[in-house]
Amino acid sequence: MASDNWVPVSIEEDIYLFVNVSGLSSFTGDEIFVWSLQEMDPPMTMEEVNGDIYKVRTYYHINREINRYSIKQIIFYDEKDNVLKQYSYDHKSDKPEFKFNYPIIRNSEVDKILLKCMEYVGPSIEKK
What is the pTM of this model? Predict the structure, then answer.
């Protein structure tokens, strides 16, 4: 997409991590939706995916108030950006403990993504 704006988050062990910051400044509450992109060299393999995986796009739903997140979608790409496999996840519950499946662990990939997002979103809204 022409409107994507991928900025680097980290480079670790031949994995380059980017986040799409387009539209992030429109988030004003504690919940953020954001795409990340991992590029791998050398590629990785997974039993469930046919072919070498060079890129992985992940759509995160992050709640910075409770410091938890969920994954909405994952897309695996080959060397020529063809989709190898994709998964979508729908969390039907409104309860935060079910809606946001995973804790954000300090210095994890999602923690780094959230920190980069905060540069564009700004601090949490103070509760009154």
Answer: 0.87
